[in-house]
Structure formats: structure tokens, C-alpha cells
């Protein structure tokens, strides 16, 4: 199994595998070295053979961090598009199909263009060892260079300093979302070390917009910025974002802006939306207030506290049960998820049941700890496909250690069916979480495809 942000999530039912790009992606995955050594050497080699597409990109807003990258990008995209701008977007991993990672001027890349770009990158690489994320990022940069746009929102895959996206020399702005402990095998086992890797995207001459951080992480970011002379815009210092009267208020050096509450659910989305607004303003983009207002109402990001509509999978749950989905999988993700569910509980009380599947490399105990006293029950399920998951027994034991009643089911559908015996009323609120790979399979099984 390759690292998060560098691998291919299982698509689940309804995900065809006969498209030309799938065969190319399978071949590219086979080039992946047995051990990942984070480096930009392989990227530079392929980019040179492709004619250096990284030098022909639209203005880039580069986004690193542990949590909240995708939501922050979604808010920026919604605002920019509401202003009438053409926006490229690069995110990872995908949920159901690979083309979700690449959005060209507002539209997910079509199969013909994707296959052609992947094939060109494969030829340029000439069979040499290269990570899946590196070679597919090279293909994405080629596509972004070929299609005119006003802005490219470029999300880091893993870390920052040696990430495949860190080939942009002069971004319009750099962004670091909240940093927490994750991917310690690649980035280090302290907040300072991890934040130092994330801060590797900072570039001289480009403003850096920084979300609220633990003090140790912020110090590491500040040290990197000081060495480069990068101007910092730090949440809680140079800008502030908060909810007041059901509205989002953002204040910075350009003044105060009063906006609708973000469409995305959860108190943490106030922070993400505020970071997005502060970034666009610090980058010098003169956008009308109407674009910010429309963007807050329109922003969408699948598998981030997403209420699942009717579908084949949801239909397996007893009628009247709420089903939600989130890809959260680390300690910080557990904290924001639990806070969001507590907020929902305050407004509309229901017993909370968690359905959880997690990768083997993740810490189930720290992820589940914030749900102690909030979740009534947890049902552990195995990871789908060939992903190396934690045994459901281990996830159930981690839940029990925090006082959460736990059981095991063979899959998400079976877990939903088992809720027929849940004592009611009221019927429970179900949150499926623990992995973006699991979330992608759930979306595919329910026919709820992104975009």
C-alpha cells in the first residue's frame, strides 16, 4: 500500500475499470518503488522531458497542511468561480474515479485528455522507478499548462518540501492549513518536524496564509518564513474568522467582511472558510463581495460531513435513520468531527452510531477518543479492496477502551441493516468514517458520485 495522497483508492461498485486511463494507471502504479524516498529528482527528470509544464502554469495558490486542505480549496474555488474566473484544481486522493483529482477550468478532466496526458507522462518516464503520485502529478501539470485559466489551486499530496507539487517556483500565495501528527514515517514524529516539512512550500516573494496552529508547529513555520523573508498572515493575528449571529465574519488588514455561514457543515468549516477568504484577499485578488457571498453558499466537498441521500446502500438502513459520511482518519480529524457532531446533536438530538474502518497505519485510539461520551455505539468494519486495514477487532477494542460499546460487521451495508434492532425512538444518527478510501467505496456503492 502506498502512502495517502499517493495511491489509488478502491472505486467500489459502479466504478468501471475498462476505460483507457485505467490500464495506464495500473501500469504507472507498477513503477512505484518498493520504498518511498521523498525526493524531487524524479519529478524534475520527467518534467524536463515534458518540456517543463510547471513553468507555464496559471497563477498558483499552493495549499499544504494535515487537515482541511480540500475544504479550503473548495471554498476558494467556489468564490473564484462565482467571480467569473476560470479555475484549475488539483486534489488527492480521489474518492471514486481518478479524474476527480484534476479539474480544468471548472470541469473534471475528460477521459480522452486524461488518458493522453498519462500516456505522455509514461513515455517521458521511460519505465524508470517513480511514485504513482509523482507521475500522475506530472501529467496533471501538463494538462494545467495546456488549458488557459486564471488560477490554479494546487493541493500538496504528502508533506510539502519534497512533495511532487513543490516544483512551482513563484506561487501567487502559499497556504498551510492546520498541522497535526500524521504520516510520521515520512514527515517526522513531532509537530515541529511535520510543520517544517509543510513549510517547505513557502517561497520568497509570495505571501503565506497560515491557519491556527499548535505553538510548536507555528514556530517551525515562522522560522522558515523568516529565513526566506516571506510575509505571514496568521489566523488569530493578521486575520480573524469567527461565527456571529449565524454569519461568517472575516477581518484582516483590508477590513471586515460579513458573509453567509458556509454551506459545509461543522464549526471547523468556519476556520476553513475564513482561511480561504483571507488567502484570496492576501493574494491581491480584487473580488466583489457578491462572489464571496455566493462562494460560501455554493462550496461543496464530498465525504466531508456529507449527508447521504437515498441510494442502494442507504436503503439498507431502517427508514428514518440519518446517514452521514466523512473521510476523517487522524487525531485532529476526530476532534473536529466530534465537535461537529456535538453541534448537530445540540440542534437535533439523536443517538450517535459510528461505522468505522481504518487503515493499518492510523491510530484508532486517538481518532476515536473525542467521541467518548458522545457516541452511543461503534460498529467496526474491514477496509474494502486490497487496502491494508486494521482488523475490525482492533478498532472495536480501541472504541471499548474509551467506553464506547463496540461490535463488528462484515461491511457497511451489513452494519446499516443491523441497526434494525436499535432501540428506538429516537432513531440514530449514523456517521461512517475512518478513511477516505472507505468513504470512496461508500459513495460508489450508494451511487452518490462526486460532481
UniProtKB/TrEMBL annotation:
Keywords: ATP-binding, Folate biosynthesis, Ligase, Magnesium, Metal-binding, Nucleotide-binding
Classification via InterPro entries: Folylpolyglutamate_synth (IPR001645), Folylpolyglutamate_synth_CS (IPR018109), Mur-like_cat_sf (IPR036565), Mur_ligase_C (IPR004101), Mur_ligase_C_dom_sf (IPR036615), Mur_ligase_cen (IPR013221)
Catalyses which reaction(s): 10-formyltetrahydrofolyl-(gamma-L-Glu)(n) + L-glutamate + ATP = 10-formyltetrahydrofolyl-(gamma-L-Glu)(n+1) + ADP + phosphate + H(+); (6S)-5,6,7,8-tetrahydrofolyl-(gamma-L-Glu)(n) + L-glutamate + ATP = (6S)-5,6,7,8-tetrahydrofolyl-(gamma-L-Glu)(n+1) + ADP + phosphate + H(+); (6R)-5,10-methylenetetrahydrofolyl-(gamma-L-Glu)(n) + L-glutamate + ATP = (6R)-5,10-methylenetetrahydrofolyl-(gamma-L-Glu)(n+1) + ADP + phosphate + H(+); 7,8-dihydropteroate + L-glutamate + ATP = 7,8-dihydrofolate + ADP + phosphate + H(+)
Biological pathway: Cofactor biosynthesis; tetrahydrofolylpolyglutamate biosynthesis; Cofactor biosynthesis; tetrahydrofolate biosynthesis; 7,8-dihydrofolate from 2-amino-4-hydroxy-6-hydroxymethyl-7,8-dihydropteridine diphosphate and 4-aminobenzoate: step 2/2
Known function: Functions in two distinct reactions of the de novo folate biosynthetic pathway. Catalyzes the addition of a glutamate residue to dihydropteroate (7,8-dihydropteroate or H2Pte) to form dihydrofolate (7,8-dihydrofolate monoglutamate or H2Pte-Glu). Also catalyzes successive additions of L-glutamate to tetrahydrofolate or 10-formyltetrahydrofolate or 5,10-methylenetetrahydrofolate, leading to folylpolyglutamate derivatives.
Family of the protein in this entry: Belongs to the folylpolyglutamate synthase family.
Name of this protein: Dihydrofolate synthase/folylpolyglutamate synthase
Organism the protein comes from: Ancylobacter crimeensis
Amino acid at each position: 500500500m502506498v502512502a495517502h495522497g499517493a495511491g489509488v483508492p478502491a472505486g467500489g461498485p459502479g466504478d468501471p475499470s475498462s476505460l483507457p486511463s485505467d490500464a495506464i494507471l495500473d501500469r504507472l502504479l507498477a513503477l512505484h518503488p518498493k520504498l518511498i524516498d521523498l525526493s524531487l529528482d524524479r519529478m524534475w527528470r520527467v518534467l524536463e522531458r515534458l518540456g517543463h509544464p510547471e513553468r507555464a502554469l496559471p497563477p498558483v495558490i499552493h495549499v499544504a497542511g494535515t487537515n482541511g486542505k480540500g475544504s479550503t480549496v473548495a471554498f476558494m474555488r467556489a468564490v473564484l468561480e462565482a467571480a467569473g474566473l476560470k479555475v484549475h484544481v488539483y486534489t488527492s486522493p480521489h474518492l471514486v474515479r481518478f479524474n476527480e483529482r484534476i479539474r480544468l477550468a471548472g470541469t473534471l478532466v475528460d477521459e480522452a485528455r486524461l488518458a493522453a496526458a498519462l500516456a505522455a507522462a509514461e513515455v517521458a518516464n521511460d519505465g524508470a522507478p517513480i511514485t504513482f503520485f509523482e507521475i500522475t502529478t506530472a501529467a496533471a501539470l501538463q494538462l494545467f499548462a495546456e488549458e488557459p485559466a486564471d488560477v490554479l489551486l494546487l493541493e500538496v499530496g504528502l508533506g510539502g518540501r519534497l512533495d511532487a507539487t513543490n516544483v512551482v517556483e513563484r506561487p501567487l500565495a502559499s497556504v498551510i492549513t492546520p498541522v497535526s501528527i500524521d504520516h510520521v514515517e515520512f514527515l517526522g514524529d513531532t509537530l515541529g518536524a511535520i510543520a517544517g516539512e509543510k513549510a517547505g512550500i513557502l517561497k520568497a516573494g509570495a505571501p503565506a496564509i497560515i491557519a491556527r496552529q499548535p505553538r510548536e508547529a507555528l514556530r517551525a513555520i515562522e522560522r522558515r518564513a523568516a529565513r526566506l523573508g516571506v510575509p505571514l498572515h496568521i489566523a488569530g493575528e493578521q486575520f480573524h474568522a469567527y461565527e456571529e449571529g449565524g454569519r461568517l465574519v472575516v477581518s484582516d488588514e483590508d477590513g471586515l467582511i460579513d458573509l453567509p455561514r458556509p454551506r459545509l457543515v461543522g464549526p471547523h468549516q468556519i476556520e476553513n472558510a475564513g482561511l480561504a477568504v483571507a488567502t484570496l484577499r492576501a493574494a491581491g485578488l480584487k473580488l466583489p463581495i457578491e462572489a464571496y457571498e455566493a462562494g460560501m453558499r455554493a462550496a461543496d466537498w464530498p465525504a466531508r460531513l456529507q449527508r447521504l441521500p437515498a441510494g442502494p446502500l442507504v436503503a439498507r438502513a431502517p427508514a428514518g435513520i440519518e446517514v452521514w459520511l466523512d473521510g476523517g482518519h487522524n487525531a485532529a480529524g476526530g476532534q473536529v468531527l466530534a465537535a461537529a457532531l456535538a453541534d448537530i446533536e445540540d440542534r437535533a438530538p439523536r443517538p450517535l452510531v459510528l461505522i468505522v474502518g481504518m487503515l493499518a497505519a492510523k491510530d484508532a485510539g486517538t481518532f476515536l477518543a473525542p467521541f467518548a461520551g458522545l457516541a452511543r455505539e461503534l460498529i467496526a468494519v474491514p477496509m474494502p479492496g486490497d487496502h491494508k486495514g486494521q482488523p475490525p477487532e482492533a478498532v472495536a477494542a480501541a472504541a471499548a477502551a474509551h467506553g464506547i460499546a463496540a461490535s463488528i460487521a462484515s461491511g457497511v451495508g451489513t452494519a446499516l441493516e443491523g441497526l434494525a434492532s436499535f432501540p428506538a425512538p429516537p432513531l440514530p444518527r449514523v456517521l461512517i468514517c475512518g478513511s477516505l478510501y472507505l468513504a470512496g467505496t461508500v459513495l460508489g456503492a450508494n451511487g452518490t458520485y462526486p460532481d
